[in-house]
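Before drawing any conclusions, I needed to go through one protein's amino acid sequence and its backbone structure tokens, quoted below without any editing.
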Amino acid sequence: MTITEDHLVSSIAEALQFISYYHPADFVAAMADAWAREESPSAKEAIRQILVNSRMAAVGKRPLCQDTGSVNVFLEVGVEAPTAWRRSVQEMADEAARRAYLLEANPLRASVVSDPLGARRNTGDNTPAMIQTELVAGDRVSVTVSAKGGGSENKTKFAVLNPSDSVADWVVDTVKTLGAGWCPPGIIGLGVGGSVDKAMAMAKKVLNDPIDITDLRARGARSAEEELRLELVDRLNALGIGAQGLGGLTTVLDVKVATFPTHAASLPVALIPNCAATRHVHFTLDGSGPATFTPPSLSAWPEIGAGDAAGRPLDLDNLDEATLASLAPGDTLLLSGHLFTGRDAAHRRMVDALGRGDPLPVDLAGRAIYYVGPVDPVGDEVIGPAGPTTSTRMDKFTRPLLEGTGLKLMIGKAERGPAAIEAIRDNGAVYLIAVGGAAYLVSKAIKAAKPVAYQDLGMEAIYAIRVEDMPVTVAVDMRGASIHTLGPARWARAG
């Protein structure tokens, strides 16, 4: 039997579709356990929304998250594998990505841009894929496919420690600085040893290992790597960061560690987090045909109800000062009315226009803007999955936009930096967060959407949208108080 190009291409393409709407069963189980144990009301509700969104995506076969990720393919090719390949692995993986991301029944968001130092134009099909290939003993081809979101990828850290330094201390100190942009609770992958490139590759690959920290705790550690995992899970959760950085008991579901021999003078450590949209699947090709994938049973999801989130109604079309002043960090709201979308590229254009004295294509006075780049709709959908993007990327545009337009509300995910919070306070604005990892759920609150400016930016165009009961949490109030400071401080504990 021969492993053909089509076997590999078709399998990767199907895997990318599969993981776009199915969480791994071990991840669902770990999140369900975290929800059951969580004591922080805000964090518990965030986890609930992630689980409800996960089940909705599985049933509807639509993306878990609007950031459908960059394509990562890990191949272990047996040296005796009967392959009949004429194209490179890169070419075959790119064809698979193209098929998957442009599939009419479930189009996935193209997020990859070419020319990273220049125009940064979207490639339109999410190619090229990121490939790691290794020749191993055997006669089969083992493949792991993952889709890695930008928010968690952006929080990657690397250091070369002294051999006598504590890896655990470095990891804890580093995670303290990551904020919530990686959408916790999730998984931390560590690559320790080797070289710079080896450590990074190990950290990325080990993220795809099964979540088994509960079993490990029950049987006890049998190696230095397992001792480090147990120590870090306890210490990281003791930080109190919690789901979405709101403060709570669970920040990490597991910590995965891979090691490799290294130079006597070095201790390289790579840290890569995986978010609440953890997506990966493994398959093996032996020549009998493309891989097949078995969906998880719907019984894997806990019975937590799919009811609407509770909260105080807020009319986006009547944002007066008294209403804004009444909002406090941690308040849960249900937004209804009209708002605009806008991400990095749109913000840059608007701020540049303000600097030139040019009019903007939309009137933001007294309005709200949502930091989102949605997936394209299918069928009778108004919009595809539309979860928030990391708000700190908009921090440098915040003051000129608030001062130049009269914008009053911003909606995104994770914390804001000091300069943005100062601008929010100075301009009597408020910052809200939606749950990262609940994109399909959030999209159901959007009742109308149309692009109104900068359509050449694709998913980063400005849309005018109308929402009904969109669930959000107040993150920064008019006085500059932040839930991302108050929440973790309340839930931090000795560890």
Observations:
- The chain has a mean pLDDT of 96.
- The first helix runs from residue 5 to 21.
- The longest strand covers residues 462-476.
- Residues 151-276 form one domain.
